[in-house]
Amino acid sequence: MLDTQGRIIEGLYCVGNNSASVMGPAYAGAGSTLGPAMTFAFRAVADMLGKPLPLENPHLLGKTV
Hints:
The chain is an all-alpha fold. It is built from 1 helix and no strands.
C-alpha cells in the first residue's frame, strides 16, 4: 500500500480487486482475480508472521543476487 506521496505504508497490505492486478489492465474473466488474491494474501500473512517468503526472481525488486 502507498500513501498519497507514493511511499510504502509499513504493515498495511492489499490483495484482491483493491490491489494492482498481475494482469495489468486486462481482465481475463470471472474468478481470474481469486488465484492472485489467495497467493498474495498467503504471502502477506507470512510477512506479518515474520517469515517472509523469498522471491524466485529477486531482481524484479531491483535487488542483486
